[in-house]
Amino acid sequence: MQRAPYAADPAASRGREFAEDRDGARGPRSEFQRDRDRIIHSIAFRRLRSKTQVFVAPDGDHYRTRLTHSLEVAQIGRVIARELGLDEDLTEALCLAHDIGHPPFGHAGEEALEDAMTHAGGYDHNAHGIRVLARLESPYPDHPGLNLTWEMLEGMAKHNGPVETSNWALAEIDEAFSLQLDQWPSLEAQVAAVADDIAYDNHDIDDGLRAGFLSLDDLMELDLLADQFRRVEKRFPHAPREIQLRELVRSQIGLMVNDVLENTRARVKGMASADEARGAGEQTAGFSPEMAVEERRLKKFMYERLYYHPEQIQTSERARDVVSRLFAAYRDDPKIMPNGWADQLPAGDPHTSRHIADFIAGMTDRFAIDQCRRIYGKAPEGLSNV
């Protein structure tokens, strides 16, 4: 599809923080294709395969992790970007990278790090993701970080809209390479954000049903889901219930994607450049007002029935305890940190605490459990409820 005038153009990128010495031997890729490939080949991206999406450290192989979720977001994001004439590579890169800053055990781990880091500027997974890619993950000989394009870092920082107050991690990057935090981001970043909503709204339903935390009766309490399921039953009356439910999830995704496309096409009419989207003063790519209301109802339902399910809360509390105990142990004796982290420990807070948080945030669920066992002599129990 032809590139739309409001799409991000890799040939007109605002560049990278550090100049690069290229030998021309790495293929005819655009700047945004390079960003995507750097994400895919990063260690931080590979670690997402063992980080919590909904269920902590799941024993079953069929539940989503941060990695499979990110791949699903990228698939949805590319479809929307292609139909709107946006840059698919930038959209895909943003979708793949959007959860890289998550610590082990999902939001439970993040809450534990937030508490532990109160005295040192706090912790935010989105800002930490940018810190990982711009500073911590450094495989190149001539610059720190992955040295992603301005458009990539801007999209990560602002995919949910302008940033009014940035924490220390984002502020450090912004000071070195201004990301214009007071403006809206590119349409590609906005698409990545709504693709994330579509993916986890619906795929978390799938996982919740598989685990037995949700039932069809629960889903039928929402008019949107009930209407979709009745259509599925009418089309496939003889299909097994499990297959009907999976078709429901697919239908929901299609319904939401089509709504985003229709609403966004109407809003970008007459838009002549990518910078017009940044200066629009409001979100351009996203749900219609009617679908936005339904999506908020769905989120509320998911929090009440799945994310705040009593078993989930108990498991999350155990997971928080693991992260809190790890932070306390490393604060008491930083020398027990492995893999050279102890050797690189900076002196004095907030730098010491931030270094420890960097180490813990990079852990997978499994590695965090192993470290807790190594330090305390006993593995934490009850960390998987599926």
From TrEMBL:
Keyword Glycosyltransferase: no
Residues covered by region (Disordered): 1-33
Organism domain of life: Bacteria
Record keyword Isomerase present: no
Stored InterPro entries: dGTPase, dGTPase-like, dNTPase_2, HD/PDEase_dom, HD_domain, PHydrolase_assoc_dom
Residues annotated as domain HD: 66-201
Pfam families with a match to the protein in the record: HD, HD_assoc
Keywords: Hydrolase
SMART domains, per the entry: HDc
PROSITE patterns, per the entry: HD (PS51831)
Listed SUPFAM superfamilies: HD-domain/PDEase-like
Family: Belongs to the dGTPase family. Type 2 subfamily.
Listed name of the protein: Deoxyguanosinetriphosphate triphosphohydrolase-like protein
Organismal lineage: Bacteria, Pseudomonadati, Pseudomonadota, Alphaproteobacteria, Sphingomonadales
